[in-house]
């Protein structure tokens, strides 16, 4: 008799646990979008130095920065997203496969303002999009007469501070 009572109570406890688990699961499924947003807001990705980039005006080095490369599709898609800060002497260099790839870069889920520097196949800066605000889905795009081979993202204001000039500044990077 005692054995039957123990089994009965065990079944009741299992049933109650199942009900609790099921109700939590239903809540999570209905609130899945918010759950992922909360995780994204908690995520902080660390800078990984992949090389150094030299910015030059008329063969004079104006700035040397540490760069993180974005050459895989997932790295390009994420870029500097989920980062709360970027040290002044750092940036992310996107290595583009084709001419249209630069148009896929956006500021969705970004936390910091950036200067976005477009660099052609001759390693020359052709356009600087300055003070691009975070969380913007649409970025000002241009159709360039030369092929865009690289995009450099740096903290907003650094292009002016370092003296980056369209048509003048060239880059050399070592990875």
List the helices and strands and how they pair.
Blueprint: H1 2-30, H2 32-42, E1 51-57, E2 60-70, H3 73-78, E3 90-95, E4 114-120, E5 125-132, E6 148-155, H4 158-162, E7 169-174
Parallel strand pairs: 2-3
Antiparallel strand pairs: 1-2, 1-7, 3-6, 4-5, 4-6
Q: Compute the average pLDDT.
A: 80
Query: Strand pairing plus helix content: what structural class?
Result: alpha+beta
Please give the CATH architecture of the largest domain: Sandwich
What's the number of extended β-strand segments? 7
Strand order of the largest sheet: 5-4-6-3-2-1-7
Write down the CATH topology of the largest domain: Jelly Rolls
What is the H-and-E element order? HHEEHEEEEHE
- Largest sheet, described in full? 7 strands, mixed
Helical content stands at 25-40%
Gyration radius, in Å: 25 Å
Give the low-confidence spans.
Answer: 23-39
Which shape, going by the Cα principal axes?
A: elongated
The CATH class assignment of the largest domain is Mainly Beta
Total of domains? 2
Task: Give the CATH H-level superfamily of the largest domain.
Answer: Protein of unknown function DUF192
Cα-to-Cα separation, first versus last residue = 76 Å
What's the number of helices?
A: 4
Strand content: 25-35%
Structure description:
There is one protein chain. The N and C termini lie far apart (76 Å). The chain is elongated. The chain has two domains: 41 residues; 124 residues, Protein of unknown function DUF192 (Jelly Rolls). It has a seven-stranded mixed beta sheet. By secondary structure, it is of the alpha+beta class. It has four helices and seven strands; from the N terminus they run H-H-E-E-H-E-E-E-E-H-E. About 10% of the residues have low confidence.
């Amino acid at each position: 008799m005692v054995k039957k009572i123990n089994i009965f109570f065990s079944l009741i406890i299992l049933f109650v646990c199942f009900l609790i688990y099921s109700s939590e699961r239903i809540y999570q499924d209905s609130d899945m979008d918010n759950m992922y947003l909360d995780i994204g807001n908690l995520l902080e990705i660390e800078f990984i130095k992949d090389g150094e980039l030299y910015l030059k005006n008329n063969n004079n080095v104006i700035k040397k920065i540490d760069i993180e490369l974005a050459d895989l599709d997932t790295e390009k898609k994420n870029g500097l997203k989920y980062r709360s800060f970027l040290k002044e002497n750092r940036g992310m260099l996107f290595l583009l496969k084709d001419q249209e790839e630069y148009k896929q870069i956006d500021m969705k889920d970004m936390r910091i303002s950036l200067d976005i520097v477009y660099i052609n196949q001759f390693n020359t800066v052709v356009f600087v999009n300055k003070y691009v605000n975070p969380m913007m889905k649409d970025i000002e795009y241009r159709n360039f007469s030369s092929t865009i081979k690289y995009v450099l993202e740096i903290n907003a204001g650094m292009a002016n501070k370092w003296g980056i000039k369209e048509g003048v500044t060239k880059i050399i990077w070592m990875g």
